[in-house]
Structure formats: C-alpha cells, structure tokens
Amino acid sequence: MNSISIVGAGIGGLTLGNILNQHNLDFTIYESAPEIKPVGAGIMMAVNAMQIFDQLGLKEKIENAGNKIHGISITDEKLKPISKTNILELEQNYNSGNIAIHRAELQKILAVNISLENIKLNHFLSSIQKKENYILNFENKIEIESKIVFGADGIHSKIRNQIFETGKIRNARQMCWRGLVDFELPEKYHHEAFEVWGKGKRFGFVKLSDKKVYWYALINESKYKSYSRLVDYFYDFDPLVLNILESTLEENIILNDIIDLSPIPKWYSENLCLIGDAAHATTPNMGQGACQAIEDAYIIGKLLEKNKDFNSIFEKFQKIRRKKVNYVVNTSWKIGQISQWENGNSLRNFFMRLIPESFNLQLAEKIIKLER
Ligand SMILES: Cc1cc2nc3c(=O)[nH]c(=O)nc-3n(C[C@H](O)[C@H](O)[C@H](O)COP(=O)(O)OP(=O)(O)OC[C@H]3O[C@@H](n4cnc5c(N)ncnc54)[C@H](O)[C@@H]3O)c2cc1C
To answer: Which one of 229, 259, 289 terminates a domain?
Structure first.
C-alpha cells in the first residue's frame, strides 16, 4: 500500500513531489503519458514560482535553462506601447527573476530532482474509490491502495469528477495557437515579454533561449474560418509578428480552446486533496496557472513544517490559498475579455495608457508575494 499517491506529473504534481521529498515523505506519482514530454511550447515562471524553486535549490538550474524577462509590454498592432511594467526592481526585492522557459526543460528539471523511480509513467487513472483507503485503478489493469491521494491531474481531473462530482468548464470562446520557432529577435526584445493587441485578436512573443522564440496567437472564435491561414488573421500587425508566424513550422504549432474551471466549493475530502488546475484552472491571460499550482505545493510544504496531519493541512491549505486563486481566475478572465475587444479599441488603449506604471507594479506585487 502507498502512503501518498500523486496523480499527474504536470508542473503541479512534480513540484509537490519535490516538496514532499524535502520533508522526507514517501510518495509515488502516477502519470498517464508514456514520457514526461509536455505539449505547450514555452511557459513563463513568474517571481512567485521562482522564489519557491529557490527554496527547492532549483532556481539556478531553471534560470540557466531559460531566459530572464524583466518587463511585460502590451502594445497595439504596430508595436506602439499601450502599457509597460518593468519588474526589475521587484525581482531584486524578491531576489528571484521572471523566467521564460521551454516546458519540457522545466518538467525535466523537476522530475530529475525527485528521481524518476518515484514516477510511474503509462498509468492512466480510470477510477478512484474511497473504501477504508483509496483504491486507484489504472487503465493498464494495475490497482493501487493509497492512504493519502493528491489529484494533480489537470483541468479535466478524473479525481475531481469522481470524488467531488463537480467541475464546470467555462469556454472563453477564443482559439489559441502556440508555437516555437528558431528566430533572431532584435536585441531590444530579448528580455521583455510582448503582447500585441488587435481587434478580436492578440499575439504574444518572448525569447526562451539563444535562438528559440515562443509565441501565442489568439482570435475570437467567431472570427475563425477553417480555410484561413493563421498568418492571414494578423495581416494588419507589425511585420515582425508576420515574420515570426511565417518562420514557424506547422509541426511546431498547437491549437487549444481557452478554458477555465468555474470555482468549486471544496478542494479536499478525507485524506484527499486537489491541487493546480484540477482544483482551480485559470485562463492563461496572467501567465499564472502553473505558478499557482506551484504555490499550492509550496503551501502544503509550509503546513507540513508545523503538522503532519494531512486532513488538517488540507483544510488550512484551502483557507490560505482560496483568495489569491480566486483573484487570479477572475482577473485573468476579465483581462481575456478586454484584450479581445472587437470595437472601441482606440478608447480602451487611450485609457490604458493613462494607467501609471506604479499601479501595474502594485498588481504584479500582489501576485508575486507568497502567502505564509
Ligand atoms: C495557452 C496557455 C499558456 C499558458 N501559459 C502559462 C504561463 O506562461 N505561466 C503559467 O504559470 N501558466 C501558464 N499556463 C497554465 C498552465 O499550463 C497550467 O496551469 C499548468 O500546466 C497546470 O499544471 P497542473 O500540474 O495542475 O496540470 P497539468 O499541467 O494539466 O498536468 C496534469 C498532468 O496529469 C496527467 N493526467 C491527467 N489525467 C490523468 C489520469 N487520469 N491519470 C494519470 N495522469 C493524468 C496529465 O497527463 C498531466 O501530465 C498556460 C496555459 C495555456 C493553455
């Protein structure tokens, strides 16, 4: 019998594994995929996540595998600034940077650090039942009994669906392409993330490493035409955007809907707890989904320092995490709507230009400050 099982070796499950390791607790992670090879191209690890990786001794490794990003700019179609947030000072205050990294690199670093022996691949959880302990049944016919279970199995979590029988997925009606490309960005774009807002569409790009650039492109679903080329939607954007899109090989592009999870009342049950997207998936507009999963693992670790009773930890965990997570989910949803306006964009941009940078920095600090 396992004492602790984690279902899902995404960023949430792997970070939790690292935290449990620090506490010398025995655990096994079950992952459906045959290898730790995530889709999704690049990802931004904000200062909140990087402070946690620092405490896990992984900050330098992650910094070396990615690219430091000191500012976030929103621009119009022609790359004319709408807002800019320079976070260099915040990074210095929190002694951690904002890192853009390839997802596969990040997950490899997290997995190797907890030893691959603790991760069972090719284990797709098909059912979970509560008896005296939890009985986990996997598609490969393996059955496991476990005292404590963590559901880190993502937005479509089987554990949430079967144990809590809840979880309404909300669709933002935006389509999102993500790509990775070998591209020489002009030097002024090397340490900043850019989001270019048009009418009912936007394009983000950031440098990941020496040559690699990660980008994402969103359009309102109502604008989608199955016969259009992606680049054609962005015909009125700066030539740099069109160049990036045209330089990307088809096989390096993925397409997803933008979805999140309508808040669920409870993330835990007896001896079982959901973390990350399984508990509180957000739309990606603040680049915080994975960072919040990492914060979940961190808080569980903090609570373990005081007490080893998991049921009391789960209750406190939700109390501590709920407010910040709700803020991220709700704010991210609103940003996603505003950024994809089809009308009144000049007025929107005009008012956004009036917002002082100090206000954006306050918002950034609210996110990157860790709860205790
Ligand atoms: C377009 C886009 C851009 C984003 N950009 C950012 C960003 O810049 N920064 C950021 O912080 N976040 C970002 N996010 C959000 C981030 O990707 C997620 O919040 C994060 O991956 C959640 O991690 P998780 O471990 O909770 O879940 P997941 O990453 O979904 O991992 C779940 C794992 O569980 C496994 N699994 C699922 N079901 C089962 C099962 N039944 N049995 C066994 N294993 C199972 C899956 O294979 C997977 O490995 C972005 C999301 C999108 C869509």
So the answer is: 259
Using an 8 Å Cβ cutoff, are 200 and 77 in contact? no
Supply the residue whose CA is at minimum distance from atom 39 of ligand 1: 153
> Could you read off the pLDDT of 240-267 as tens digits, one per residue?
999 999 999 999 999 999 999 999 999 9
Q: Is residue 81 part of a domain?
A: no
* Cα torsion 178, 181, 184, 190: sign: positive
Distance between Cα 153 and ligand 1 center (Å): 8
Q: Which residues are registered as beta bridge partners of 255?
A: 177
In a domain, 74, yes or no: no
Mention every residue, 6+ apart, whose C-beta is less than 8 A from residue 154. Answer: 8, 10, 276, 277, 278, 281
Residues 199, 52: one domain?
no
Integer Cα distance of 207 and 192 in angstroms: 8
What pLDDT is stored for residue 344 in this prediction? 86
Binned at pLDDT 50, 70 and 90, residue 365 comes out as: very high
Tell me the residue range of the domain where 223 lies. Answer: 179-259
pLDDT score of 18 more than 80 = yes
CA 211: distance to chain centroid?
A: 23
Q: Report residues whose beta carbon is within 6 angstroms of any ligand 1 atom.
A: 7-13, 30-33, 40, 43-44, 123-125, 152-154, 158, 176, 178, 216, 256, 276-278, 284, 287-291, 293
Pick the last residue of a domain from 238, 259, 280.
259
- Nearest CA owner, ligand 1 atom 49: 10
Q: What is the pLDDT of residue 1?
A: 85
Is 115 found in the same domain as 23? yes
Q: Which parts of 29-167 fold into alpha helices (H)?
A: 47-55, 59-65, 88-93, 103-113, 158-159
| pTM of the full structure | 0.97
Total structural domains in the chain? 2
Structural domain includes residue 368? no
Q: For 288-300, what is each residue's pLDDT tens digit?
A: 999 999 999 999 9
What are the tens digits of pLDDT across the range 183-219?
999 999 999 999 999 999 999 999 999 889 999 999 9
Alpha carbon of 274 to ligand 1 centroid (Å):
13
Q: What is the pLDDT of residue 339?
A: 92
Residues 320 and 197 in one domain: no
Q: Is residue 357 part of a domain?
A: no
Residue minimizing CA distance to atom 27 of ligand 1: 154
